[in-house]
Amino acid sequence: MNIATPDPNPRGAPTLTRRQFLQQTGALALCTGLGRFFAASVSRAAESHATPSSTASPPTFPFKPAYLALHEQGILRLRADTLWDSLAHCQLCPRQCGVNRLLGKQGFCRAPGADLIVSSALPHFGEERPLVGKGGSGTIFFSHCNLRCVFCQNWEISHLGRGTRRSISELADLMLSLQTRGCHNINLVTPTHYLPHILKALDLGVSRGLQLPIVYNTCGWEKIDLLKQLEGIVDIYLPDFKYGDGETAAKYSAGARSYPEITKAALLEMNRQVGIAQPHADGLIRRGLIIRHLIMPNLINDSIAIVEWIAAQLPLDTYLNLMSQYHPAYKAFDYPELSRRLTLKEYEKVVARARELGLRNLDLDRRWLTL
Amino acid sequence: MPCRFHSNIGKIKKMKPRPRLLSVSALDLGVLTQGFSGLTGQILLVRELLVAFEGNELTLGWMIAQWLAGEAVGCLTAESRWARSRNPLLLFVATTASFCLLLPLTLFAARWIRLGAGTPLGETLSPAWILGSSFLLVAPLAFLHGALFPLACHLAQRRMSESSLTVGRVYVLETAGTLLGAILGIFFLVPHWNAFSIALGLAILNGLTCLGLAFAPHARENPRRILSPAFTLATLLTSAGMLMLFLRGDEFLHRDSLQKQWGNMRLVHAQPSRHAMVCVLENQGHYTFVANNQVVAMIPIPNRAETETLAHLPLLLHPSPRRLFVAGGGWGGLIHELLSHPSIEHVDCPELDSVLLKLLTAFPSPITTAEMTDPRVRVVLMDPRRFLRLAPEPYDVILIGFEDPTTLQLNRFFTYEFFSLVRRRLRPGGIVALRMRGGLSFLPDETKDLYHTLYHTLHAVFPHVRAFPGEGRTVLLAAEMPLPDLNTDQILSRAAERHLFEGTPVPWHLEQRLHPLWHEWFHQTIADRPSRINRDFHPIAVYHTMGRWLAIHAPSAAHLWRSLNLHVPGLRIFLWGGMAGIVALAFAARRRPSAPASNTTLRTIGTTGAAAMAMDLATLLAFQSTFGYIYGWMAGLLAAFMGGAASGAEWSRRHLPSPPNRITRLVVLDASVAGMVLAFPLFLHGLSLLAPNAETLASLSFLLLAFLAGAITGAQFSMAVAVWTSPPLPSHLPRSASLYAADLFGGWITAAAVPIFLFPLLGIEQTLLALGTLKVASFVQWNHNPIQGKNIDEYRNPRP
User: What is the pLDDT of residue B742?
Assistant: First the structure.
């Protein structure tokens, strides 16, 4: 897929977005004393498009997310349309099924054609602290998954695809309602196979007032050309880095042998786009790369390989969340090596190695380490 | 309904006296063993299936229905086809041998179900697997056992001249065997022997009794042959059983089938208790304790996020917790966290299952050892609910560590009645805490319904309830006084004052739960759900958990499930309206003098079959809701009911009134059944109130109640058969087989529908009242042509 960056002004004529038109007209009205009539008509126009969740006055936002500029230039919409057209021969993820989702075909992820299934949208207060703040992380969980891990704790949505069918407009409204509730970001969980829908909804949402940074919460197994489509749209990348070994990935994630190689390339690209995740004065992270790694029992060498790669290839300030909360779920009990919890020794070993390597921005289970 | 008893009362007419051929005592033993084996085999299989179905008692109805159907078909088949055999003894022995061979095979298959279905540990089988597997395993065994009865009757008739006496004697002996099976099963066999040992023992016992039957000189078809085919077969059966036992084949089958059940996981110990099959799985020094396929503990590493949250949230919100009570789920981390609070002086941990405690001691971890040996912790072998009622001092915090109410046994700790008890046992300012399963990534309607029900039930007892959602589990706290609205800093400050987490950061999974907006989000999430109160005899929470299970495995059925829940008032109107309509129709039918009485009788027996099954199931489910250990008492309750049915039938047979009064007796019995069903809820409630103070008396009273319910329904069926078989009838009037089929159909419909739908949705009381109304309608319809166009009065006082 090519990055869609056409010349927005092929004939040299000035282009005007709806926002700009309203702003200019409003200024003119104010100057001519017709502001009150203008305000009334604008508010009526806003109400006709507003959903019940988005009628509240939007708060001020100290941070302008990257996609606003692309929206104004029309590039966001163009990319959304391009990705949508690519559903005719879907190769959004490394599975590269090539099915025609526009005709309702299902690929490996089992997303129902071009329909969008959302399982949940809520202000989440349990994500990483710098994403939660006071208002929470506006999290939208998408159903289905292209990785299908045997130990998945969200297997009802990732494997069974449970959720609710939503339109693009409804997805935009979900985003806006999370903004209205005071969330600090829009956190898209397992978004890859619905990226066309997401970009369309994002474009629609921006025209309705969306201004929160996007968190791209992914399994990490992402194609570079897809990530390039997200440049300038996503402010925070939140990928998993699950496996350092291809055979392990193939065993537990439905044959995804290329997982390590593709994910490494993806992480480098993400880092290039958004850089290190640094919190602002209010403690919130609004831009940057946050990597999650769930340490699993009997896969410590794999985990060590992962932290070694991160230390070698990414800045030592890269935000790395070493998670200890693995517990057997779904079909994990079919694999004896996964049928138990992580021990403190295993966790300590990985953490120690990460510290040895000089990784400085570690999100750890500090209570467990100091017990 | 125990169909095999009733079906053969109706067959009295067909049996003609034959010359005496068999030794009386050998056949008596054979029939006794047959009854003993039938109940024992049934209970062994039902227990294994309950384990496979994660202890869900509502599936008992399906299993009982399958057994009924299988017995009935076996009975009818043997009567209609095999009875003409020239060698009934060989058939009897062959059928017995087949039963004895099939029993261990079905037990083995029952343990394989979950592996065959690919269902991981902790998840539930699909309804298709539950229905299909219970049918395939239960029905054939029941078929063989059902076939034995008419064969035994035919054998018996050869020695007695009066066929009715023959059948009656067989009844009594088989009933005695059944009761013996129940008593020995509960108190001796099951607690001390594994299922395969018992099955092999049954094979040997049956083989020996068959040998006795076959060896009797008069039994041989050809007296000059010492070894008849029946004798050979009986010898083979006995020898095979003994050889297997000698070679410890029972142990091998037991261990091998258990290990197969767990696939790749290493099983180190398995032991049945009164309440469950408890298994211990080992993996690199980590142990998982499983009871009826549900994980109850994992050591040595606890799920820290869950245990720390459930432990510290209520304790930090309490100003000074000293006395604690933990109901379930405490071992392996939760109690350890509770004890880290320095103000704690005493923790009561009643445990229902002594086997679980014993295994936690046998496979210890540093955490469980510390928990069990801490002087502040008191471990008591008692039902937690009963202990709470009897506890001498109140508590500051009561924690309900059990997970979702997926079974009636667990539901007992999430009901209005239990929460009311909790409130009475809390000190002023005390807090109760419980947890509910459900992730944030997906909250389907069924989960929201469950959340709302539990929240609403708590709120019906406690004025102040607060939710702390999070990944994996949501914690609910409730109190009589307002819960302190402490912010994160205040909570952390309190933790510091108590020297909790000293030197260590407060874990994020605990801190993030305190976010003030979680509770608001929770309220908004469950706001639009219908409000229900979860009660002991109205287990609506179990309905919701079953709905969640259906939504995964059978989405279209789940849609109907949700619809029923949303329209319960409409369902009530429909049901009661339907009952009223039926009563009205019954009144109308009385006015039609030409209505055939045969149809009336069929309706009567059909509705009695339904009512009897409803009472039987209500007894089982009420027992479980009251005591929590149906697993160990199922045999007794089923046997009590069946024994009652047989006793009632026998009483009717022995006290037959003269023919003109039989219809009256039938109608009186019908009214008695109706009265019994209508009064049944009162009896159940009375026993549940008696139970906490007199457990043994109450549990024995449940047995008595089951017996009485069986007796009255058995007496009616026997009377109905007697009415239609003596004196002889015109051919167009129903034979006993039709009556038997009506009885079976009524029972089968009830077993399939009532425990799954009506009990949880409407409650046991309303369901029984509805069925009682149905029986009233059946009673009301009587007043017309009982036999051959004559009305009751004419029949009673025939004109010259």
Answer: 79
Same domain, A42 and A70: no
Decide if B505 and A332 are in contact by the 8 Å CB cutoff: no
pLDDT one-digit tens code per residue, B28-74:
888 889 989 998 999 899 889 988 888 887 788 888 888 888 988 88
**Nearest chain A residue (CA) to B515:** A125
Mutation target for B interface from A53, A119, A124: give the one with most B CBs within 10 A. A124
- The neighbouring-strand residues paired with B464 are B479
**What would the pLDDT profile of B633-656 be if each residue is shown by its tens digit?**
877 888 888 888 888 988 888 888
Query: Measured between CB atoms, does B496 come within 8 Å of chain A?
Result: no
* Of the ranges A17-26, B200-209, B256-265, B741-750, the best mean pLDDT one: B200-209
Say if residue A42 is in the same domain as residue A88.
no
Q: Tell me the three state secondary structure of residue A330.
A: helix
A20, amino acid identity: Q
Q: What is the CATH number of the domain that holds A226?
A: 3.20.20.70
Residue with tokens 């076939």: B147
Residues of A whose CB is below 8 A from B403 = none
Residue A244: which of A313, A178, A168 has the closest Cα? A313
In this structure, are A240 and A340 located in the same domain?
A: yes
Residue A41 belongs to what domain range? 18-48
Alpha-carbon dihedral angle through residues A155, A161, A167, A172, given to the nearest 10 degrees? 10
Confidence of residue A54 (pLDDT cuts 50, 70, 90): very low
**Residues 93-132, chain A: which have Cβ within 8 Å of B?**
119-120, 122-126, 129, 132
| CA contacts within 13 A on the Cβ side of B494 | 20
- The answer as to whether A146 is a domain residue is yes
Residues 20-79 of B with CB under 8 A from A: none
Residue B584 makes CB contacts below 8 A (sequence gap 6+) with none
Q: What is the mean pLDDT of chain B?
A: 83
Does A331 contact B120 at a Cβ distance shorter than 8 Å?
A: yes
Domains in chain A: how many in total? 2
* Structural domain includes residue A3: no
Instruction: Let me know if residue A270 belongs to a domain.
Output: yes
Quick count: other Cβ atoms within 10 Å of Cβ B385? 23
Label residue B596 by pLDDT band (50, 70, 90). low
B697 touches chain A (CB under 8 A): no
Euclidean distance between CA atoms B379 and B369, whole angstroms: 13
Which among A40, A45, A38 has a CA at the least distance from the CA of A207? Answer: A45
- Contact: A125, B305; criterion CB under 8 Å: no
Between chains, do B521 and A123 touch, taking CB under 8 Å as contact? yes
CB neighbours (10 Å) of residue A312?
9
| Same domain? A40 vs A159 | no
Instruction: Compute the average pLDDT of residues B441-463.
Output: 93
B518 in contact with chain A, both atoms CB, cutoff 8 A: yes
Distance from CA of B248 to the nearest CA of A (A): 29
The Cα of A127 is separated from the nearest Cα of chain B by a number of Å equal to: 9
Question: Looking at beta carbons, which residues of chain B come within 8 Å of A333?
Answer: 120-122, 263-265
Core vs surface per residue B148-170: b (16+ CB within 10 A) or e: bbbbbbbbbbbbbeebeebbbbb
Judge: B443–A120 Cβ closer than 8 Å, yes or no: yes
Residue A183 inside a domain? The answer is yes
Find chain B residues with C-beta within 8 A of A160's C-beta.
Answer: 552
Weakest-pLDDT range from A192-201, B121-130, B489-498, B757-766: B121-130
Question: N- to C-terminal Cα distance for chain B?
Answer: 41
Q: Which value does ipTM take for this structure? A: 0.81
pLDDT value at B219 more than 60? no
Which of B:442-461 have CB within 8 Å of A?
442-444
